[in-house]
Amino acid sequence: MFNILFNGFAKVYMKNEAFMYFGLMWKYCLPSIVTYGTFVDMFCKMGDMKMGNRMFLDMMKVGIVPNLVVFSSLIDGYCKAGSLDVAFEYFERMKECSVRPNEFTYSTLIDGCSKHGMLARADSLFEKMLSASILPNCTVYTSIIDGHFKKGNVDDAIKYINQMFDRDIKLDLTAYTVIISGFHRVGRFDKSMEAAEYVAKNGLLPDRIILTAIMDVHFKAGNIKEALNAYKILLAKGFEADVVTLSALMDGLSKHGYLQEARRYLVKENANEILYTVFIDALCKEGNLDDAEKMIKEMSEAGFVPDKFVYTSWIAELCKQGNLLKAFMVKKRMVQEHVEPDLLTYSSLIGGLAEKGLMIEAKQVFDDMLNKGITPDFVSYDILIRGYHNQGNGAAISGLHDEMRKRGIIVED
Ligand SMILES: *[C@@H]1O[C@H](CO)[C@@H](O)[C@H](O)[C@H]1NC(C)=O
C-alpha cells in the first residue's frame, strides 16, 4: 500500500509529500527494497544525486541489499550529471554486491563515456557487454558511433557501423542521422551522401525520412543553401515531402532567421493545405502572431479550411504570450467552424490560465474538456497540479491524484 503511494508521488516528483508519508510509514513498518528503489529512482530522475546517494547509504545501514533497480538508477543519474567517475564506482560496487549489470546498465555507461569523449572506456565496456552475451541494440551502437565520430575516429565509427550491418540490427532515424552527420562533420560529404543514398536505394527508411535527415544535417551545420539544395535535389529525384519533412524544413529555416524568405519561395511555388499549416505553425512557434494571423486569413481566402492543427498552434502561442482573451476568442471561432478542440488545445488553454494563477477558471476548462468526452493525460493533470502547487493547495492536488489513480495514469505496481 505504502509503496503504491510512493510510486505515485515519485512519478510527479512530489518530494515533500513523499517524505511525509515516509515518516508516517516508519511508525508502522520498515521500508522495503521496493520503497528504497522508488526513492532512489525518484531522486536520480530529478537529478538530486546527493539525496540519491544518501538513500543508498541509508539502505546499506539498515541492512537492505541494493538491487539492480537501485544501481541502475544511480548509474544513470550520475552519468546524466556528468560524474562518470562516481557512476563507475557504483558499477564496481555492483560486482561486490553480486548484482549483474544488464543491457540498461551497460548502455547507460557506454552512452555516458561516449558523450564525454572517453571512447577507450566505451570500447572496453562494449567488449565486456558482448562477452556477457548481452546484445547491444541500435541505441547503444548509435551512442558509440556518435562518440567516435565526434572524436574524429572515423575508422572506429566505420567499424561499429559495419558491425551493426553484420549483426542485422535495424537502424532507426537517429542512427542514420548520426552516421550521415558524422561523415559530414569530418568532411566526408561523399560518404554522407553515400549513406543517405544507400538508405534510399535499399528502402531502409521512407524517402521522406532520409530527406528530413539530410536537411537536418545541413541545417545543424548552418548550411542553409545546402539544406535547400538537398531538398530540391531530392524532390527532383521523386522523393515526397510530407508534414514532418516540411516542418523540419520550416524549423531549420526559422532557427536561422530565414522564415520570411522561405515563405516567398515556397508559397509561390505550390501552395497547398499542408504548406500553409506548416508555415502557420512555424510562425506561431517563432512567436510571430501577426504574420501567422495574416497567413491564416490568406489560407482561408485561398479556399483552404484551417484545421485543428492550425488553430491549436495559434491558441498555444497566444496562451504562451499571455493573451488569453484572444485565445478564447479563437477557440470560440474554432468551435463555430465545427473544428473540435482536442486535448492539446484544451491543455494550452488550461496552461495559460494556470500560469496566471486563475485556477478556478483552469479547472472549469478542464471540466469542460471532460464533458466533451476528452480523456486527460498525465501532462494535462500535471499542468493543473503545478498551478495548485504554486498556490499551496494540497487538497486540490490530492483530489487530482485520486482521479489520476482511478484513471490509471499513476500506475500502481
Ligand atoms: C536499447 O536499450 C536501452 C537500454 O536497455 C534502451 O534504453 C533503449 O530504449 C533501447 N533502444 C531500442 C531502440 O530498443
TrEMBL record:
Membrane spanning stretches: 20-44
PPR repeat windows: 32-66, 67-101, 102-136, 137-171, 172-206, 272-306, 307-341, 342-376, 377-411
Name of the protein this chain belongs to: Pentacotripeptide-repeat region of PRORP domain-containing protein
Signal peptide span: none
UniProt family annotation: Belongs to the PPR family. P subfamily.
Gene3D superfamilies, sorted: Tetratricopeptide repeat domain
SUPFAM superfamilies: HCP-like
Protein's UniProt keywords contain Cell membrane: no
Keywords carried by this UniProt record: Membrane, Repeat, Transmembrane, Transmembrane helix
Keyword Transmembrane helix belongs to the record: yes
Pfam family, one: PPR
InterPro entries assigned to the protein according to its UniProt record, in alphabetical order: PPR_rpt (IPR002885), TPR-like_helical_dom_sf (IPR011990)
Highest taxon of the lineage: Eukaryota
